[in-house]
Amino acid sequence: MKYLTSTTRRFVHRVAGLDHAIKRWRTRRFTPSGQLVLLGLVIAAALGMDTTRTMAYQGFTFLLALLIVAVPCALFHRGRFTVRRVLPRMGTAGEPLVYRVVVRNDSAKVQGDLYLLEDPPKQRTSSTISASHPESTARGRHRTQSDSAPFRARDVAYEKGQTREKFHPLPVVPPGSEVEVRIELLPPRRGYLDFDRMTVARPDPFNLVRSLIHLPCRDSILILPRRYAIPDVALPGNRKYHRGGVALSTSVGESHEFIGLRDYRPGDPLRHIHWKSLAKVDKLIVKEYEEEFFIRHALILDTFLETGDTTLFEEAVSVAASFACTVSTQESLLDLMFVGAETYCLTIGRGLARTEKMLEVLACVDACRDKSFEVLKQSVLRRASLLSGCICILLGWDEQRRELVRALDALGMPRLVLVIGSAAATPETQAPATAAHDGPFFHRLEVGKIAQGLSLL
To answer: pTM value?
Structure first.
């Protein structure tokens, strides 16, 4: 039964794909008037089967003659063009992406009655992610970990509400001249949009059939996650001592921020000895480093999706992006922690990195299906001594996730817990009704009502 269901699903999928391809070819190649002629041709053919009882066959002959004349006119009505896009640096999922396209006439004739068509871009939800590796801190080395997760290409323009491709009219273009057209696209998801080509179309003199000139024009733009408005949240936590100051907050080992030299004191590490000064003055001189107290929060993103529904995960990423844009990092640090191909940690604030960098990473993060939640838990606990507080964005409320929250509570770590759930599968409430799991620092957010839930924080 399972085999038959799978086979039927593939068959339906192929039929739907074929139907979509035929519709796309028809709407691209034929103008609205041409599609009306095609419809009349089919009706006349059906009604005119018996030529002794109806005159519909004459209409069929007339319409067929129109198409026979229009098709060669469209095919031989060509031109030479060059196109280039002027894209913004980034876009946002769910918000209009507006950009310009420059069309140049490379032929020796004046070109008019032209239309520009943007071929549907492909969207990949993953790309190379670079962030400092938490495990490298424990090993005493600073390392940048990057990996490329597999990506899934999707047609953006065929999402619900964007199934109709738009023909943008162009003004008359003299030889060697350029014109611009403004195009608006609505990217439904985060990730990279990869543009491949554009099409210049021109109808035949009867305005029935279009000639299509496909022009290669490859570009790419990063689409950031959707973001929600979040009120000013007083995040819990106090300043923590960080030996070496900000310079050590994202590196490891003893690479502190150097502030000067001083005489050796008993107990100073031997690796701090300044050997050149020893050779000059014949006494031990050590390097002195800045020590500093500041606030450091962790933004913990749960990437362990146990179901095939990616809506929960996409909403969790959007909530994380919303906090990344809301939390003030002028006088504090914010660590984004999640598990993908590896365990990642990206720190922003106090001149280390900008919020845009964290948004770029969130735009490319993918769900983790080959590791356990324990990996994230251990990574967080290893860095607990450096953190002032945690913002936990979880995809459920099972025992593993409860254990993480209980471990943070046992360490006295202030935390804000947000559990993303759907109306059909509300997170379980088996935890005791105590302040440890209820109150102002524990919230459940329902898919479809995320904005309302965040407004109540």
So the answer is: 0.75
